[in-house]
User: Which sequence fits this backbone?
């Protein structure tokens, strides 16, 4: 599987936690493992492109609707 492109890595704080949160969100919503991994990756890429370990509320909802 190809790597997810990231414009610029700013701060990696919380990247693993964000990945885990996205993965578990998918798992709790009965997604297959590949989709869980995509959700986790999306959350982690959002976190590393900004300072701090938080992403905007609704990030996963916007990702899933795109």
Assistant:
């Amino acid at each position: 599987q190809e790597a997810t492109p990231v414009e610029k890595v700013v701060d990696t704080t919380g990247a693993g936690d964000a990945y885990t949160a996205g993965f578990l969100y998918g798992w709790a919503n009965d997604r297959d493992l590949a989709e869980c991994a995509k959700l986790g990756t999306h959350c982690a890429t959002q976190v590393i492109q900004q300072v701090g370990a938080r992403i905007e509320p609704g990030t996963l909802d916007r990702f899933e609707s795109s």
